[in-house]
Specification:
Elements (H helix, E strand, L loop, with lengths): L1 E6 L2 E6 L8 E2 L7 E6 L5 E6 L6 E6 L5 E3 L6 E7 L5 E7 L3 E7 L7 E2 L7 E6 L5 E6 L6 E6 L8 E3 L7 E7 L6 E7 L2 E8 L3 E7 L2 E4 L5 E7 L4 E7 L5 E7 L4 E5 L11 H7 L24 E3 L9 E3 L3 H15 L7 E3 L22 E4 L9 E8 L2 E9 L9 E2 L5 E2 L8 H5 L3 E2 L7 E4 H7 L3 E2 L17 E3 L6 H6 L35
Antiparallel strand pairs: 1-2, 1-24, 2-3, 4-5, 5-6, 6-7, 8-9, 9-10, 10-11, 12-13, 13-14, 14-15, 16-17, 17-18, 18-19, 20-21, 21-22, 22-23, 25-26, 27-28, 28-36, 29-30, 30-34, 31-34, 32-33, 35-36
Amino acid sequence: MILALYEAGHSHLFAYQAQDSPYLRLTSGPWDDITPALSPDGRWLAFASNRSGPWDIYLLDLQSGDLIPITETDHFEAAPTWSPDGKLLAYESYNQNFEIIIQSAFDDQTMINLSQHPAADYHPSWSPHGRQLAFISDRTGEPEVWLADFDKFDDNRYSNLSSTPDMAESHPIWSPDGSSLAWAGQQERNRSLFTWKPDQGSRYIGSGDWPVWSPDGSLLLSTLSDANQSMLTAYQAEDSMLVLPPVILPGGFTGLTWGRQPLPYPLPLGLLQISLEQPQPLWTSGSADNNNSGEGLNNLAYLNGIQAPHPQLHDSVDEAFHALREKVSQEAGWDFLATLENAFVPLSVPLGPGMGEDWLYTGRAFAFDTLPMNAGWLAVVPEVYGHETYWRVYVKARFQNGSQGKPMRAIPWVFNARYAGDPLLYEQGGEMGSGIPAGYWVDFTEIAQALGWQRLPALPTWQSAYFAARFNEFVIRGDRTWQQAMHELYPAEYLITPTPIPLPTLTPTRTPSWPIISNPAP
């Protein structure tokens, strides 16, 4: 299995083989490698990378370690899939819109635009029979699984396989024998896997986000996302029985493929050297000059160059904040974290209702400024896990030429819709936007999680109180509870909350009242 995982702030490719060390590094460097796909013969690994600036498709020869660029454009290209004979590649390409491109893997033949539709078409998967290709398209207004049949023409070539209103499908993948198609579907708080057969329709398998078939077609392996971590799980394809309880992955997840052939032994010299590398983390917890303001506050470090009511953080997480600020500035092209809504909040400063034990009081959290949202430079997408609502934050890249960020695939939430005069929109706290924003965006949540920052769930009252959404707050808890984190800053007596004793209300004179009519009118 080849997985694309985040490590030290970058996504790279790792091979997983049970007989060896769990994760064998195949790529490294100050760039990101995502969406791997193994060729049918197991020799070539196709993937997307921004190592040269824009996102392009590359081929890694697992026998020699050579790297071959397949595309060299300013557009975003990713999610490659192989034809059964291993001669062609299909992939998604973004140039103001997602299209599916087919081209030769080893020569300079003319590229073919398969979809040619104003809707967004992406996540292609080539059938092992060779004459069909599944993909995701929002032609009906929402992401659904479509099928392109190369033996048909005109409008008959494309057909909708899922047709599930209010469910967003993603990542279709054919079984090795081509008899079944699996995909992931998200509906409200449910993230589910389905398999489809032409004569049986779709069938529910289990929970998951990104499926892949085992080489013999008996298992479905899938990632399973939680609010702040990714896991691997697996089911038997025939009876949906769970065969792999969720296993936590060491980093964020950006792609998965499973091949029949093992890696060559010994590894080529280039791959062997890469596998032995130990990337340095982007930040390490250091010591700072403790601040003592005379109020019992210790272990706080000032954030130089940051505008905030109290520009301080705990000295065990301030390095993580500076690393996040630098990383986001590099990825987005502008200093998004130069201004904060809040960093450390003293006990004397009250927050909103329900936030009496918020992590901002511990100095281990920050809340970024939300004003860029009004200018269209910030977007948030709701994600429901269980009964809690979280938010995925996207920052617009400064340079919209393909050299920064990636295209969005989700529709953001519009908080300002609550002020449009519609009582329903006011009660639900806004509404989903009219469509996917164009251009290139940086996934702030993904970068923050790679550096150890976790997002917090919205409070239950977020639909009626804007501040309760908490989409802009991130925290590094470590293994501490809120009380333990507070005791690192304050003596125990500072945290004792006295029980209020209501004072008696004196009524020196009788309260006037209207006379009661003995015979009220009907």
